[in-house]
User: What shape does this take?
Amino acid sequence: MRGRFGAGIVRWAAVLVTGCSPLVPEAPSDDAVLDGTLPGLTGVQVARHLAGDREFSRTFGAAEGLGPIFVAPACASCHVGDGKGHPVFNLTRFGRALAGGFDPMRTHGGPQVQNRAVLNYLAEVVPASATGVAVFTAPAVSGLGFLEAVSDSTLIALADPFDADGDGISGRLQLLEPSDFLAEVERLDLLFDVEASRPVPVDGKYIGRFGKKGSAINLLHQTVTAYQQDMGLTTDLLPEDPVNPAVGPFAGDDAPDPEVPSSVVANVVFYLKTLKVPPRRNGDDPAVKLGGALFAQIGCAKCHLPALTTGPSPIKDLDRKTFHPYTDLLLHDMGPELDDRYTEGRATTSEWRTAPLWGLGLAEAAQGGRIFLLHDGRARSIREAIEHHGGEAATSRAAFRGLAPDRQELILAYLRSL
Ligand SMILES: [Ca+2]
Ligand SMILES: [Ca+2]
Ligand SMILES: [Ca+2]
Assistant: This one.
């Protein structure tokens, strides 16, 4: 993990030594790495970003509070180099269909399986009574500060729940039931971002925008949930360790709670807020430009919005800026093929938040030379990911299939440049 100046220094070192030694590999260029700060941060902000970066990379052991049950010992185990994760660290969640809704089976350890445990304790498995199981591959985390800074009113305006414009696409907001916990998450986040203003929640509910089904309202919410659910680490906001209900509390967890202090949580959140956007490559190539025009023409850009604008932010680089994430942050029904019979919040089992496509061309390197796309990594190529698009995206998939092979290749070249 490198900071703002680190990448440049490494590259200079490589230039100096490669002249005489062909054995030293060249450091990757800036446009091939996801890690790095926003360009306009102050010195104090860079220092805080780097402190958060160290915590994001930190590997916990049982003595520091890891577990008793967990999925991985570091944020960076799953979000390697801030890029997409490898399926070896996939998360598994489950639940059960009920007449009036969906039961996340908390008394059975749901909704998330912690499939690893500290010594002398038992890891969880999916209970036989679960009717829906979904697997989640870790997404890249670069550029998320921009997605967070988009104001709720922008998302409310983008939503088209009843498909009023009749194009077969009806993006919906994820809305999470109010709770004291969410109110506190919102309140603390406002303290971090003093001037940031969010409109009143919709119908008293909170708009979810992070996670593949939009289950987190902001980066603070996502971070404390990850510490608890993915790593078994307590914070002031979520002070209880996850335990396997089949076994009961773990007597050996001597680490005092909170295992991760709020000052560390705040630095990690700041780190996520201030990561640079994934860099584009070959954007000026005429073939890539043509591919971009076709991408819009066949309807891909209706969900994968090429541009969004942030609201006011105390961080200069995030303050009312237009950026290019290729998502609308809304839930879309993707049809039976992507229906895992599992859900969160008000999303149906086949609804998913539009995956941001920025950084798509860097996924292969981040995932170890092979590519694993869609929420669970099932698609092994970009073309395969498109082939799984049904439901609201069926029309645009049909349009893609209808293109001549060389035109399809232009779209793929465009996607690899993102
Ligand atoms: Ca713990
Ligand atoms: Ca669990
Ligand atoms: Ca519509």
